[in-house]
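Input for the complex:
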Amino acid sequence: MAEDLSVRVAEVLELAKKAGAREAWANVGRSREVETLLRDGEVEKVQESTSRALNLELWVENRYASHRTTDLRPDALSQFVADAVALTRALQPDPDRRIPDPTLFAGRSSANLDLEDSSVPKIDAALRESWCRTMDQAARGHERVISASSSASHSEHEGAAASTNGFSGTWRSTVVSLSADVTVRDEGDRRPEGSMWAVARHIGDLPDVGGIGGRALEEGLARIGSQKLPSLKGILVVDPRAAGRLISALLGGADGRSVQQSRSVWAKKAGQKLFPEWLSLTDDPLLPRGLGSRLFDGEGIAARPMPLIAAGSLQNLYVDNTYGRKLGRPPTTGGPSNRVLGLGKRPLAAILPDVGDGIYLTSWLGGNSDATTGDFSFGIRGHRLVGGRIGEPVGEMNITGNLIDLFGRLVEAGNDPWRSSSTLVPTLVFDGVRVGGA
Amino acid sequence: MLSRRTFLKEASVGSAMLAMPAFLAACAPKHMRQDPLPNDPFGAWFGVDPLSTRQVLEELSQHGADWAELYFQHSRATSLSLEDGIVSQASSRIDQGVGLRVVVGDHTGYAFTEDLSLEAMRAAAKSAAAIAKAGPARLPVDFSHVPQLEFYAVALPWSEVGIDQRLPLLERAAALTRALDPAITKVSVNWSDEEQRVLIATLEGGYHLDRRPMSRIWVNVTAVKNGVTRSNSANLAGRRGLEWYTEEKLQLLAKQAVDRTMVLFDARRPPAGELPVVLAAGASGILLHEAVGHGMEADFNRKNISIYADMIARKVAPDFVTIVDDGTVPNERGALNVDDEGAVGQRTVLVENGYLASYLHDRISAKHYQMKSTGSGRRESFRFPPMPRMRCTSMESGPHSREEILSSVKRGIIAETFTNGQVQIGAGDFTFYIKNGWMIEEGKITYPISDCNIIGNGPDALRRLSMAANDSVLDTGGWTCGKDGQSVPVSQGLPTVLVSSLTVGGQDG
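Predicted:
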């Protein structure tokens, strides 16, 4: 129960003060996680674990450090706190590292985020195995299948946090996830893979279980005969499951630390019109049942929706308390909750007929980007689009450019966001993208 | 989710340390020196001994077991960060627990607990045991302490090094870096170190204690020229103690970080398409990791899902290609005195004179193939069951010279530094991301390139390894390999080689 965690947190704060910390922040979290993995009709792995950990942040004589332990025996804990204070004291002073002002804790939403499904802890081994068997049956329904595996897992989390300057909060949540992977036989030695997964807070939000196995199989079969095309320039349609990575890359330097350390493409972009007027991207911590939802962030700042991109330009950065002070601007929140892209009017299937020729990108193949410049180069896999129809599979191709320029080429967003992620992004359509191949 | 996804990246959290021997000798730590860890903290603090271990193993194997083990771990880690001239951010972490595994055939029951009391361990054992459905397995009569190899001895364990001994390393690295170019506007240094103790007790009666140090120092540089901002980084890492981070090493690190940053002001994107790719000696071992190493991990082959599943003894590369994966290279991130299921540290030849020689085995796959484990069973921590993983993967020197290789290329690139890579195990398609490199035209290096993704296919790339130089060397930076949600430290190396064609993510062309 979270009550006993709150008591533990209060004890640790006392210990910290006694050991000489002027201010402290502590949280204790506990979780239980269970997984069943089935491969080719047989249970291959069952795993069950409970874990807990204490995190302690200390401010001692204008010095700051964070500490973590999983050894919660009372004797060990006192020694841990004493050592933590001594370590903190050995650092160099930094007046910008201060415990967050309590005014930032105020205004916490009373919304019910609905992050806990009380039936998740009751899922038993038989139900996990039956979910896996349902996925497995659908996933192995083709003579080209070499091997298939299915996994069902769920977890329960609870925790409590408090600070010496008045913060206190608790949380409880559940997660349930299903996944299927299929390997199929191609010509020659190649063994293409397909995969599908679903993650939700509530069991009722999971999609059809057999459909997950079926989709993994379809994806594996669709990769058969994948070819590298000659380089081309055209429309790039990005599947919702793949689109989240572009948002993560775009926001790579969109935080106070990166800007203050001169490692952000966003450092000098405030107010510049860079993107289509209609594009909106919001950090929304209060999304009911969201995988990234929360009432307060890691520093206790009360959570509220924050526009990231609107009216064609960057609106806000993720700014925590310390880097806010260093940059001379008010803190917003230290890191992402749910990143939500504003939806368009139609799904992928309705968009495709209008896009003409190009590439339909379904998954990534490595690559990276530079947060300082926005330059990127990503490997891609997907299908050729001819007159809006999904054609043969393509792979071993790259898109290379600059993320700011790429999002300036965004022409449409779908209404079909991928929900098994805290980055909720629909189909994205970019115009005039060069795709490098043979 | 994405259970077969694998990747390799430069460790994202800085770690590393520093320490000049002169400094060590001159100043005893004034404060923040913790009491030395007992050699066997599990016995000393929790009363874990052969008797209690036997009781837990009995619970764990009550419904049968071909194999079972307890993996105890106690880790103490410290990280420090210097920004804007001061070390004002630190974190410390104590992580301990025990992982309990029982294996029947290809089936695994697994549980872990952070509570090392006998009651908690027995409860976890009971839950893991449920995978098996037979009668009790036979328990060892006695446990035998297995003498330990020593591939990573350090002068002083990290748990006994004071913060005041670490701080000067960060400050020195920052000062050396900043002094190298007036265009530098920001320097940050990240440091991390870890002292880990493990105890592995097996159903066969093995009782292995290992102490595993790890450290890393990471320098980030940002420079501005004519209003243009560029940044890059370099790092040094290994199972090293403070004594390894000498003034000379810090100077080299600073120079690497600055050179790699300043060259970006002139860098362009290479042309897109299929080009010859020269891989510079050292960090380019990423090629082996992705193109060969993962596909040779025997779990993928046992499940028949690797592109290499039917290729043992086949000729896969030219005669001069010999690739090894080695846990015995002293002080490398991938070094292992004993693997995470109690198999002794060893060296495995993956490709010998062009022929595919051996997979990387853990105990499950070794039993499946009726072979001995290659000592490749590794795990991220006590929270995970082990699986076959790479250690230090490298290719032996070849018959050519770097000059011969460069001059043979009419139009191509040479790759020098990398940030990450990955591979599709079944299709064999792999990638790596070049941070720094050069264009080669008519056998000559012409202009710097950066930020391009490279794609190839494992077996194709091996066949196209057309030249290898006599300069094989291991990378000094630290790499972390991810597989099935578990990250483990690895090392890699390569001589200068030429792959006659790979797909280069560039612009135009």
